[in-house]
């Protein structure tokens, strides 16, 4: 995965901080800001819903009944009026592009395409194609927490070496993309069981606590994400156990250790690093005397850039 | 009316009525256009163009700038643009944590549209029936938002002062919370907004703290600024926020942030994403 230091980023200040710890801002600087000039707007039904890289757009010109291209935009053909018609045409084009090897990591899972979580779904799209069209996708993250005498602890997983995305990197208790046809709460219960062996009745006690946004140019394309974060307080004798082979190991880590690792290395998946910084802020492990406190808060929830209607 | 109206009330997206001004090339505030034009009368202090206003470069120290801008603030008082004079100087910096660039009389802060800071504390109690929040009602003689609902402790933060120290002082004055109890307050984030307030651009950052209080504690105001306190269920708080402007304009977003962080609102709540994005003005 490409990691580029942000050229415009200011170096961290240390003036207001009593400690000389490296700034957590390094996590937000793992990717350069997205250069939207490299993209064409992707519109459906006159609404801006995504971004197509200029060098990918020519492949879409092979499907004139599905895509209309001009200098600024890729438009889904206006003759495709219903959600079903749009989704079918998109599926046909994506199957052909997949055959040409242009859509790696096919998932067989449909994601909604629209302007926001509580906005109408204009079309359904295969999950693996969402970064190629720069559409907004949703996911759920569960912090598995244990309150102990010696402080707050956090269940941290290490991703299996065969994972397609971010193998071996540090991850949280459970997380997953949010496909169509399942509520965020039910998806959370499913992921908690598959990834960490959390029984459903326990998983249902997870509390929604925050969101973060993701806006990066990753190897697979432009990832625009809105992630729903939950805290799940677990009993001291709970042991996280992976059931689907996607997690190599779990460890109950003091949050202080989570913080030190975030300050000094890039071991966590990028989005999970953001989720953990949000956790450190919400639980008061860092405060206004942390250098870049306000910049961290702003960076966790940057608005996703679509043109206004 | 809905929860999200409480956030939208504290955001200004149309900046066309304002002109940015800067010190040493760093944006420091936003001036209403008529104020920007009025500053043309002080060419030794401000360089005014149709797009921007900047402090003249010969004013190259904190003290020079403070003295020169202070004289302009006095003149604006006489011109009726600045209202009142509190003889309380606020340090002004481009960003929190940066070296202050000058000091400014508090009454002139909104006129110059510079950033101001505050500390707000959500005082709450865990009960068998769920979390309850202490809500104060502002005294009827307060100059700003009399009678409105408020946090248990809230106050302006003079720049450069430690937020926790300020919190401890305000906690005693406003709610009779002793230092040992006040030190249990946990920082949980901040909200930043940019809004139109009494004709000027108000740009505040509020550092937010949660303070869990014992069930038998009852806050007691000592400075006359709060008329009374009530312990409310989160359902009651939510209903008031949804249906009225009973909460002070900048307390409502602090309380909505509390509802989000404590899981009282869910992904199924209307406008959840906008509510959880919160207020993060630059």
> What is the strand content of chain B?
25-35%
Mean pLDDT of chain B: 95
For the largest beta-sheet of chain A, the strand count, sense and barrel status come to: 7 strands, mixed
Counting DSSP E segments of at least 2 residues, the number of strands of chain B comes to 13
Summed up, the helix count of chain A is 8
Q: What's the CATH topology label of the largest domain in chain B?
A: Nucleoside Triphosphate Pyrophosphohydrolase
> What is the string of SSEs of chain B from the N terminus onward?
HEEHEEHEEHEEEEHHEEEHHH
* Rg calc of chain A: 20 Å
According to CATH, what is the class of the largest domain in chain B? Alpha Beta
The coarse overall form of chain B would be globular
- Which range best describes the helical content of chain B: under 10%, 10-25%, 25-40%, 40-55%, 55-70% or over 70%? 25-40%
Structural class of chain A: alpha+beta
Order of helices and strands of chain A: HEEHEEHEEEEEEHHEEEHHH
Determine the CATH superfamily of the largest domain in chain A: Nucleoside Triphosphate Pyrophosphohydrolase
Q: Write down the domain tally of chain A.
A: 2
């Amino acid at each position: 995965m490409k990691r580029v230091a942000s050229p415009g980023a200011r170096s961290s200040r240390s003036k207001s901080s009593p400690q000389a710890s490296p700034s957590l801002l390094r996590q937000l600087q793992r990717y350069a800001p997205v250069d939207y000039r490299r993209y064409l707007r992707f519109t459906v039904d006159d609404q801006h819903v995504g971004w197509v890289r200029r060098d990918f757009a020519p492949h879409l010109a092979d499907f004139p009944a599905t895509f209309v291209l001009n200098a600024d935009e890729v438009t889904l053909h206006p003759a495709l009026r219903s959600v079903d018609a749009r989704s079918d045409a998109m599926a046909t084009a994506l199957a052909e592009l997949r055959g040409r090897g242009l859509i790696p990591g096919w998932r067989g899972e449909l994601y909604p395409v629209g302007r926001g979580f509580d906005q109408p779904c204009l079309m359904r799209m295969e999950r693996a194609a969402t970064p190629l069209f720069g559409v907004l996708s949703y996911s759920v993250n569960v912090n598995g927490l244990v309150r102990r005498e010696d402080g707050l602890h956090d269940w941290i997983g290490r991703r299996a070496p065969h994972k397609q995305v971010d193998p071996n990197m540090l991850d949280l208790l459970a997380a997953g993309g949010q496909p169509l046809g399942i509520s965020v709460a039910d998806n959370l219960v499913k992921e908690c069981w598959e990834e960490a062996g959390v029984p459903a009745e326990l998983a249902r006690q997870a509390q929604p606590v925050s969101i973060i946004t993701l806006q990066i140019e990753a190897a697979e394309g432009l990832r625009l994400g809105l992630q729903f974060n939950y805290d799940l307080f677990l009993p001291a004798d709970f042991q996280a156990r992976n059931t689907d082979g996607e997690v190599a190991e779990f460890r109950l880590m003091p949050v202080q250790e989570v913080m030190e690792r975030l300050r000094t290395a890039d071991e966590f998946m990028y989005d999970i690093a953001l989720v953990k910084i949000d956790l450190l802020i919400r639980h008061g492990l860092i405060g206004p005397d942390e250098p870049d406190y306000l910049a961290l808060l702003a960076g966790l929830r940057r608005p996703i850039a679509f043109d206004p209607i | 009316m809905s929860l999200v109206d409480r956030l939208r009330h504290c955001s200004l997206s149309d900046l066309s009525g304002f002109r940015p001004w800067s010190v040493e090339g760093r944006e420091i505030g936003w001036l209403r256009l008529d104020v920007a034009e009025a500053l043309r009368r002080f060419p030794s202090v401000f360089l005014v163009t149709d797009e921007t206003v900047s402090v003249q470069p010969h004013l190259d120290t904190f003290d020079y700038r403070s003295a020169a801008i202070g004289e302009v603030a006095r003149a604006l008082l006489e011109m009726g643009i600045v209202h009142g004079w509190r003889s309380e100087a606020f340090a002004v910096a481009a960003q929190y944590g940066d070296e202050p660039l000058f000091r400014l009389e508090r009454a002139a802060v909104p006129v110059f549209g510079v950033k101001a800071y505050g500390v707000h504390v959500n005082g709450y109690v865990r009960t068998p029936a769920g979390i309850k929040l202490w809500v104060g009602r502002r005294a009827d003689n307060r100059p700003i938002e009399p009678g409105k609902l408020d946090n248990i402790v809230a106050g302006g933060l003079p720049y450069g002062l430690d937020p926790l120290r300020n919190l401890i002082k305000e906690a005693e004055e406003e709610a009779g919370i002793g230092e040992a109890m006040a030190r249990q307050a946990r920082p949980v984030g901040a909200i930043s907004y940019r809004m139109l307030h009494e004709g000027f651009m108000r740009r505040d950052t509020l550092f937010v703290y949660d303070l869990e209080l014992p069930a038998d504690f009852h806050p007691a105001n000592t400075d006359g600024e709060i008329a009374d306190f009530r312990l409310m269920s989160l359902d009651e708080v939510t209903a008031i926020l949804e249906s009225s402007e009973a909460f002070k304009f900048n307390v409502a977003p602090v309380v909505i942030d509390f509802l989000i962080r404590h899981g009282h609102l869910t992904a199924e709540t209307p406008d959840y994403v906008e509510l959880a994005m919160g207020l993060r003005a630059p």
